[in-house]
Design goal:
Blueprint lengths: L6 E2 L3 E5 L5 H8 L2 H6 L8 H19 L3 E6 L5 E8 L7 E7 L8 H15 L5 E7 L3 H10 L2 E6 L8 E7 L2
Parallel strand pairs: 5-6
Antiparallel strand pairs: 1-2, 2-3, 3-4, 4-5, 6-8, 7-8
Helix pairs in contact: 1-3
Protein name: GNAT family N-acetyltransferase
GO molecular function: acyltransferase activity, transferring groups other than amino-acyl groups
Pfam families: Acetyltransf_3
Length: about 170
Amino acid sequence: MDNYKAFETDRLILQPTSTSDAQMIFELLNSPKWLKYIGDRKVHSQEAAKDYIQHRMLPQLEKLGFGNYTVIRKSDQAKMGICGLYDRKEMEGLDLGFAYLPAYERQGYAYEAANKILEAGFNIFGYDKINAITSKENTASQKLLEKLGFQLHGTTQLPQETEELLLYIIEKK
């Protein structure tokens, strides 16, 4: 993973997710909020999490040079969650996404990591506009997106999905 950019903030390291993060990914993808707001990815073991990383996360990193980042707290090296820019085939443009293990929520880590990833998206990877989607019930994500400067632009629906999602957009200043 040395060929890809990692990022730092005052409290965090954001490094490209690798198979060494499988335990945290397994826990995250089976956490209550992930299951409620994102959905069951059928990752029911650490081995399945490694497979998920290899086949769902790493291909974009290898293709574009960015993607999913594991968020690590500097003070104790705790792997807390993920944040990244996703090139979803069912959406036009990049999508900012984030999720954290319950123990690390509501401490400012999501804002700190997402702000750094947005900065990279605009200033390093050269994008002028970034999207974000969230469930209508996920008010915590909505508040974070608004705090980051995203504007609500209506709703969208992903192919093969029935849920109507809120679509947020932020443009480079």
